[in-house]
């Protein structure tokens, strides 16, 4: 094992003078509010008020070579998930044990089985994906040679891939513009060339409109399915605003699952009608966690949407393809061949980014995986079939969690080797935080966005479309900005 310093150099010298720091922080807070880098407060919710979203004052360093590698790999990951989503035999077999013990997964699969039995009304799916990754400092072999040269990391590993409600299409680019302003105010304008272009918002919206065009129903709208209470309002509304400004002939409507079950119905050709509006494309920003379904009505709404000819983002099969259990299964070489074929370079490129992923099913070596976790829990993370952050179990908490589960209950979880990223240094600015903020140690998670449209047999559209960076205190496990643990950031590319 190599022993890198595990620290990435900051893009500007720290610490900043206190007076200068306080001045630029106040400017940054105002910039964030006035440009929509903001959220509604969960603690003191008011639909008429916004707080700036937590942010890192200056961009965090990220190796250019690894960033470019992630960008170039995304279309291949799009194709992989697309192929997985359209293999019903694989999905149902892979999730069979999880289906028995996880109520939420079981409800999703019930919808999937229903539309499979009836015949899927819309063969096209729209995937707006985000592959999340972290740099790794534990290195060996040729990976370690790179680490010795850079002296901070060896490579990057995938944390997960998101297939539903892949957020930060607006907040990701906003971070770059906010930090560009701050770098300029600090006298480092010449460094802006190292902040990569980020067209995540336009890329996500353009893909939605591309799906809308394929439907050839000019009077139909794009339907955003949203939570009953939306905290991350800017990240959603800016998608809507971009579509309305760039494509004024394309209508956008927002409805909750509760409203859809009250107002929704299928037309004679299985058109999705919500009130007096037809929706030809459905973009889910809700529906990814049990709390979005208050009863049978919301599940009925989800089934109604799936039965329609609207193009869904995600379709039910795409949603299932994003579950942790499926991603754990994909880490097996023979499984990758099923979807990629015998293309050795493609298989190697994908396998290279996977960290250790282990099934906890007894029939799949689950007892051995449990033994690994109990022997050295700090090396692992327990992950359930949930999105939205705050659900994972880390380190010292793993033994008690595992010992409290029956062997059947373990099937709702996977075990993943923990990634140990390099540290960076910066100022985290939070609403009601200390003024001036202290200099702290941080770790970052990069998300690469992809868009893909196609059927089981043909891909019509496949692009990498932007990125986002979330950064958290190095002492924190969870990193979700919406969940309150992380902060907006953007990558500063270094060689």
UniProtKB/TrEMBL annotation:
GO terms for cellular component: cytosol. It comes from the Eukaryota. Mg(2+) binds at residue 387. GO terms for molecular function: ATP binding; glutathione binding; glutathione synthase activity; magnesium ion binding. It is an enzyme of class 6 (ligase). This is Glutathione synthetase. Its EC number is 6.3.2.3. Signal peptide: none annotated. Substrate binds at residues 236, 470. Residues 221-321 form the Glutathione synthase substrate-binding domain. InterPro entries: Glutathione_synthase (IPR005615), Glutathione_synthase_a-hlx (IPR014042), Glutathione_synthase_C_euk (IPR014709), Glutathione_synthase_N_euk (IPR014049), GSH-S_sub-bd_sf (IPR037013), GSH_synth_subst-bd (IPR004887), PreATP-grasp_dom_sf (IPR016185). It comes from Anopheles coluzzii (African malaria mosquito). Binds 1 Mg(2+) ion per subunit. Pathway: Sulfur metabolism; glutathione biosynthesis; glutathione from L-cysteine and L-glutamate: step 2/2.
